[in-house]
Amino acid sequence: MKKQDYLVFVEILLAVGNLVTGAPTDGLRIFGGQDAAPGQFPYIVSIQQCGLFTCEHYCGGSILAPSWILTAGHCYSYGPKYQVVAGIQNISEKSEWRQTVAVDKFHVHEKYIGNVNPNDIALIKLEEPLTYSDRVQPIPLPEPNSFYSGDAVVSGWGQISGNFFSIYPDTLQFQKSTVLTNDECMALIEAKLHGQRNPYDVNSNVCTGNPVSHRGICSGDSGGPVVGEGVVVGLASYSFIPCGQAAAPSVFTRVSNFIDWIHDHMNSTNATMY
Ligand SMILES: *[C@@H]1O[C@H](CO)[C@@H](O)[C@H](O)[C@H]1NC(C)=O
Ligand SMILES: *[C@@H]1O[C@H](CO)[C@@H](O)[C@H](O)[C@H]1NC(C)=O
Ligand SMILES: *[C@@H]1O[C@H](CO)[C@@H](O)[C@H](O)[C@H]1NC(C)=O
């Protein structure tokens, strides 16, 4: 019993640590995923943090419009410069399809207070618009305030190794998954938390899960999409560490709860939607 409590405590601490830094080295992966084909997910981008000489993958994002990317709020931290890379499957390859654009502005939701909390959503305005192609396409938004559950697919360049040894894939990973109902998400998370505060918010969150197999998001998948019926249902927000535990759901920001917020921000800067 004591040992179990201790493990739970570590899991939550790490989950929080991951969200504080958003760093791919701390903890969210697509566990049990498979290689995506080139162009299979034309709406996903790699959001990268840039140092003096190099830029590194930090989070996933989804293309909403040529100059607009949707991601998680915890993917922003004050200081570093950011760039967005679209049109890629192998993150290291210099292919003709690859488009790299600097980030103009990161709009983090005004009510996101950091860590494992609701409203974990952000919009990125790019300095230059992306050019759509077979490999670069937008993903539609869900109906406002809709609640989807059912088949879905998660994609990302997050960690594919175990817990503390971080191994990141070159090739975009994806995983077929199931979006659960709020009741199912609540129950699964409660069962893992053993009485600790449950951060799951029924309006702001949605989760995916598989009670038997070891699957889920991990470090570096943050901000990336879960897509069901052709729309971006959620943005990877947090999960339990170690990643991919059986019966540990992956938690996403429920995009349908933020449609007005998204439109207000995109409209206020005179962006064209499509
Ligand atoms: C990805 O591209 C890099 C650079 O071209 C190459 O070294 C690496 O082997 C590629 N990875 C895969 C999985 O093809
Ligand atoms: C913002 O733009 C969207 C998409 O073009 C439109 O549906 C919505 O009505 C606009 N909202 C406002 C407040 O202008
Ligand atoms: C948006 O466009 C309208 C009409 O062209 C203009 O009046 C308004 O000042 C613009 N708003 C911003 C924030 O640029």
TrEMBL record:
<dbReference type="GO" id="GO:0006508">
    <property type="term" value="P:proteolysis"/>
</dbReference>
<dbReference type="InterPro" id="IPR001254">
    <property type="entry name" value="Trypsin_dom"/>
</dbReference>
<dbReference type="InterPro" id="IPR009003">
    <property type="entry name" value="Peptidase_S1_PA"/>
</dbReference>
<keyword id="KW-0720">Serine protease</keyword>
<feature type="domain" description="Peptidase S1">
    <location>
        <begin position="30"/>
        <end position="267"/>
    </location>
</feature>
<dbReference type="InterPro" id="IPR050430">
    <property type="entry name" value="Peptidase_S1"/>
</dbReference>
<feature type="signal peptide">
    <location>
        <begin position="1"/>
        <end position="22"/>
    </location>
</feature>
<keyword id="KW-1015">Disulfide bond</keyword>
<keyword id="KW-0732">Signal</keyword>
<dbReference type="InterPro" id="IPR001314">
    <property type="entry name" value="Peptidase_S1A"/>
</dbReference>
<comment type="similarity">
    <text>Belongs to the peptidase S1 family.</text>
</comment>
<dbReference type="InterPro" id="IPR033116">
    <property type="entry name" value="TRYPSIN_SER"/>
</dbReference>
<dbReference type="InterPro" id="IPR043504">
    <property type="entry name" value="Peptidase_S1_PA_chymotrypsin"/>
</dbReference>
<dbReference type="Pfam" id="PF00089">
    <property type="entry name" value="Trypsin"/>
</dbReference>
<dbReference type="GO" id="GO:0004252">
    <property type="term" value="F:serine-type endopeptidase activity"/>
</dbReference>
<keyword id="KW-0378">Hydrolase</keyword>
<keyword id="KW-0645">Protease</keyword>
<protein>
    <recommendedName>
        <fullName>Peptidase S1 domain-containing protein</fullName>
    </recommendedName>
</protein>
<dbReference type="InterPro" id="IPR018114">
    <property type="entry name" value="TRYPSIN_HIS"/>
</dbReference>
